[in-house]
Amino acid sequence: MTNVSKALYQFFSGFGIPAYVEYTPPDDAALPYITYQDIVPEWRGEAQIYARVWYRDTSFVAINAKVDQIEAAIGEGVSIPTSGGAVYLSKVSPFGQNMPMEGDDTLRVKYLLFNLQAPTT
Predict the structure, then answer these.
(1) What strands lie across the sheet with 85-98, from one edge to the other?
(2) What domains are there in the chain, each with its CATH number?
């Protein structure tokens, strides 16, 4: 696992619900959880990444509260220490948007956009 991968996991797993690299939640994973892209840009590079917050609910109250928690943790940008330096995450506009899930009226998904800078990998 690269320093960037470790930093992303550290950040996204810090919100009281499980976090998984996108498309890797176990078949028996219970909602809520977060999925995120594990992208490692070139040294001193940057990339746009996304995360998705998944809940099963009839309203958006709980999922919006979790997104607010993530947004507050980022602020104007957050530096996540690594053994070789740091990874920097900031919000991209529009930061969060609902993803409708056809065929399941209780599945709530928020799509979040970030800019990832990784001066070290």
Answers:
(1) 19-21, 33-36, 45-56, 107-118, 85-98, 78-82
(2) 3-118 (3.30.2000.20)
